[in-house]
């Protein structure tokens, strides 16, 4: 069976000059490879600066890789074809409050991707906006709301709706629950899992919360300083970590939940 999303030897190098002497700082994302099938979730964990968010940006086309390839349903994605990537791989951002334009209504926020990427007329776009709001547990009237009128949980649902409105095949979520309180976080996690079952989406989920990672992911990728130090089925990695770094992460998580 052909994988929904296949990443082969993806690399990226950042060079920055810092300080008055112009010293060069270099960060290299070493070759990353993984596959996701429809309905599966791959979680990516690691400390800050490990390359998790950089990998997310490479997947959605916000950055162009130095090397390697990304395949969707066996077809190689052109790194210069942003529309192709935008239609099929969508992103949910960590801070929904910052990612939503305060000057636009929810309806306008959801309609804009449809205007830019589809041939739908105004009536069809309106119908799609309403149906997508319902899909994420919001009301049709929420299309008339502005950012300041929404709760944190509702804002994150709008972020999810914006990702889903183009009917993508893969969702990349970068710390989507970090700003939510525990009760709202639980509701949002359950919503995402239900939508994944219903729509057959592939999820790439980036998080520091190993409790959620263990709950929702099928496979796990552990990153440190741009390197993939371990990968495998989630339960296998949690129960029998092979690298010292992964073992430290798991032990830290266990110590928190056993307090």
From TrEMBL:
Residues 5-250 form the ABC transporter domain. The keyword Transit peptide does not apply. Signal peptide: none annotated. The keyword Nucleus does not apply. It holds the Pfam family ABC_tran. SUPFAM superfamilies: P-loop containing nucleoside triphosphate hydrolases. InterPro entries: AAA+_ATPase, ABC_transp_ATP-bind, ABC_transporter-like_ATP-bd, P-loop_NTPase. This is ATP-binding cassette domain-containing protein. One of its GO terms (molecular function) is ATP binding. Keywords: ATP-binding, Nucleotide-binding, Transport.
């Amino acid at each position: 069976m052909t994988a929904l999303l296949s990443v082969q030897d993806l690399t990226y190098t950042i060079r920055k000059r810092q300080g008055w002497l112009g010293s060069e700082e270099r960060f290299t994302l070493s070759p990353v490879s993984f596959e996701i099938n429809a309905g599966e979730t791959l979680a990516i964990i690691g400390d800050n600066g490990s390359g998790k968010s950089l990998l997310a940006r490479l997947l959605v086309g916000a950055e162009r890789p130095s090397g390697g390839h990304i395949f969707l349903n066996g077809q190689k994605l052109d790194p210069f074809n942003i529309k192709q990537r935008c239609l099929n791989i969508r992103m949910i951002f960590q801070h929904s409050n910052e990612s939503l334009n305060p000057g636009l209504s929810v309806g306008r926020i959801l309609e804009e991707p449809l205007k830019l990427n589809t041939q739908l007329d105004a009536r069809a776009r309106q119908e799609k906006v309403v149906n997508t709001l319902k899909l994420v547990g919001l009301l049709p009237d929420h299309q008339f709301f502005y950012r300041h009128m929404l709760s944190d949980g509702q804002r994150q649902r709008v972020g999810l709706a914006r990702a889903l409105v183009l009917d993508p095949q893969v969702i990349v979520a970068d710390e989507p629950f970090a700003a939510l309180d525990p009760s709202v976080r639980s509701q949002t996690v359950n919503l995402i899992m239900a939508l994944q079952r219903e729509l057959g989406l592939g999820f790439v989920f980036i998080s520091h919360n190993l409790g959620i990672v263990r709950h929702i992911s099928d496979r796990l990728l552990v990153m440190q300083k741009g390197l993939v130090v371990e990968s495998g089925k989630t339960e296998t990695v949690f129960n029998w970590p092979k690298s010292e770094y992964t073992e430290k992460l798991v032990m830290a998580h266990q110590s928190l939940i056993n307090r």
